[in-house]
Structure prediction request, 172 residues.
Amino acid sequence: MKKVLLAATLALPMFAQASGYAGLDIVSSKIEPDNTSASAKPEVLQFKFGTWINRDETLGGELRLGLGIGEDELSNNVDVEVDRSYGAFFRGQFPNTMPVRPYGLIGLTYMETTEENRFGSSDGENYKDISLGLGVDVTITHNMFVSVEYMRVVDRSGDEVTNLGLGLNGRF
Prediction:
């Protein structure tokens, strides 16, 4: 968590520039704890805000905040729900003049979940580490674009989280 907050603080000066983007994504997370062979796929509503470091809009910084909107069963009647997630990323992409722009992300993610068993007791689990992602932006209008993204969050304890997201974004 401290790493994410530090990265977000360092990225804030980038947001002073006039050009940037904001978006809203629906994300399907696949959570695979290391103590079981089962997995759960809860959904997350993710808000993202980014700005460009260079004039060509090929390098940027991005902050994300996600809120859980759905839960899924892990195993043995254990329901998993994402409470919230935070992230700070560097983004590299093809120039903004292209209608279809592949991009890559590297950054830090912190995800908090709640696991509730069939007896009503619950426990929380946190997943955090370096994240790597690949995606593509497709221009709809001059100021609007759609994004599709795959991101892998690798936890040091052996737990794995992967995200598949679909988003609607706008330039400003």
